[in-house]
Amino acid sequence: MQQSAFTKKMISGFAAIAMAASCVAVGAVGSVAYAADATPVYSPVEPSDNPRNYAVNLPEGATEAQLKAAVDEAVKLGGVALSQYPQFGTFFVQAKSKSFAKDYAEAATEAGIKVDSVGATRQAYVTGDEDVIDKDGASTFSLNTPSNAGQFDKEKSLASDPYTTADMAWGVLALGADKAKEVTDKDVPLAPVTVGVIDSGVDYRHEDFKNTDGTSQIDFDKSVDCSVNGIPSQEKVNVDGQEVYPWRPTASSHGTHVAGTIAAASNGKGVDGVAPSVKIAAIKAMNDGGFLYPEYVTCGFVWSAEHGIDVTNNSYYSDPWEYWVPSDPTQTAGYEAVRRAVAYATAKGVTSVAAAGNSDQNMDDPAPDSGSPDDVADANSGEPYANGDGKSIIKNRDVKDGIDIPASLPGVVTVSAVGETERGKLGSYERASFSNYGTESIDVAAPGVNIASTVDPDIDGGDYAYYSGTSMASPHAAGVAALIKAIHPDFTPAQVLDLMKKQAAVNYAQLADPAKSDNKEYRGAGLVNAFTAVTKDQPKPTVADAEYSTDGGATWKPLKDATVTGKATVRVKATGSVSVLSLTVAGKTDTVKAEQKTHDNALTASVDVDFTADGDQSAEITANGLNDYKDADDDVTSTVTFKSVADPANLPATADSIASLKKDTADASAKKQSDYTADSWTRFAAAKQAAADVLAKGDKATQGEVDKAAAELKAASDALVKAEAGKPTETKPTQPGKPTQSKQLTETGSSVAVVAAAVLLLAVAGVSLIVWRRRRA
């Protein structure tokens, strides 16, 4: 990071904003159960006939046909269908009638359509481009900072002077993300990972999202706008005469700041993200009023699940309720829609990380809420909004059974915020004064005070700014989750969370003990740890049991505790995250390297051995993982013990056997070639020479060689055939069972003589017959 340039930009007057997303939840967080034949839960009749969006939830497991029938019923009542999710039986619809929820519940029941709940997703009515009933609204796409920025507006009270921190990138350093980058740059391959930033949009033009090779940190194909009725759109829109992507921020830099913390490029400019190797998908789920309604958030989670997004960051609560009470008909349907969407994304492998909130609340036992619904009136002045329909913020609302969505939903990683105990000094941290807490509610802690990151200059007036809030803590944790997923691409969300918590415990002692101050337990499992994510608990190769073969590989047997005789081949196989496999047996080593570092490699190492002595043996096996960092823990070593037995045939020949062979050879030498047929002598001569060759080896001759030579010499001697007197000993070999040529000629001559005699007799008989017949005539 170029600090001087950054400081200069800060002097020019960057905005400093921080998020205050109060997120409190206790009680059950599952689906609300209803009797199969019960009337659906529906929200109260509204004060006026104005366009409103409604969530409709069928029983989970409803078929696509059943969902279609339910949508058709809503259309019959004048509704306009919005997004539909047959994946979990939910759809959204816009309707103008103030009694739509009640009317639909009754109509669906009468039509035999089972519906769990139907209710308005917001307390204010719909205006602008979202009004698809009247279709007379103004465009929602204009660069502006609205007078009300919703929940993000609260961050201003947490703003800090850019000059008050001694290290602008302290959050990245506190997690060891700078050292983690050194490891990932040269020592370990990372699987592709995309983090979805469900937020106010991301300024894709920012210099810190551009890599030195010209590529972008933003994945344009996976980015989307969900902020118009929760209907996903990737079509460019016109803003001040320019065609821009619809997920460009129009009211807040919040999402851009979050994205920079996760994955700002390491390009020599501005700041580095926790995980600059990952991609960002901008998922715009906030409208220009600063609200993130259930239909937007549901769209964001389902989009993530369907478009290969691995991790989502959620630095918000779903408006208009800071704490959704599932049993309250006003909130039942909206809560259930988001709950189902998060569960669906989790089942699809998406790890969701969320901010705990900035209300200094005990999430295990929340105090009454006096800030909701936040879309009907100004939270500070109480002045009602034009589309608030005369409603007001409810004071001291009982939220004992309230749920912060998404932070308190099952499977979501909930993150508290910490700051440096002593400004500018790393290694000691304490709870941020605004951070929510809770022994049961917090999973991990992360830096969230005075965090420097990227912002949209059209909105904030500069390229970088300091924000404070659990909104800033959450992306630090999301960056670590992304690193874990990149190292362990096959991990489920539950496994990512478990490992994140295990590794966060490494730096648990760096977090101040709340028992010594305010007893507000905020630490969870500890401080998220980027460096440990890329060096410890690494994927290890899977090493199969070592085997051996004594028949040239036709059959293989387990090597462990075996007794191996004489010559054999020993092998071992390793699969998965293996880069190098080495096997050493009896002083011989075979090392095999993978062509590429991937998680689906398969290597085999083998060694040929020849045991000439009995004894204890071992096979030393080393399978290296994909991480070459010196302290990485992904290498597997093992020792397999077995016994060797020398093959007697390979032992030095005994003196007696050599003496016997010498005697046999001497006896053979006394025989004369002229006494035997050439055929039998040829074999005998070869056997005699082989025996002589073995004897020439002296004490280096093996017992097997001597035994073989002796056996062949005896067999050849026994096969000698005496030559007949007066006949040459050289004859051509004949095929077994066939006569010799001379015999064939003799037999042929005899046959000819017999045939000739027979012909002569027949001829004489024929003449006699003719004479006899003539006489008779």
UniProtKB/TrEMBL annotation:
Active-site residue list: D199, H254, S471
Family annotation (Gene3D superfamilies): AF1782-like, Peptidase S8/S53 domain
EC number: 3.4.21.62
Annotated ranges, domain Peptidase S8/S53: 193-509
Transmembrane segments: 752-772
Signal peptide extent: 1-35
The keyword Transmembrane helix belongs to this UniProt entry's keyword annotation: yes
Comp. bias (Polar residues): 731-746
GO MF, one example: serine-type endopeptidase activity
Single GO BP term: proteolysis
Pfam families listed in its UniProt record: Peptidase_S8
Keyword annotations from UniProtKB, A to Z: Hydrolase, Membrane, Protease, Serine protease, Signal, Transmembrane, Transmembrane helix
Region: Disordered, residue numbers: 355-393, 724-746
Protein family (similarity comment): Belongs to the peptidase S8 family.
Name by which UniProt lists this protein: Peptidase, S8/S53 family
Protein source organism: Bifidobacterium reuteri DSM 23975
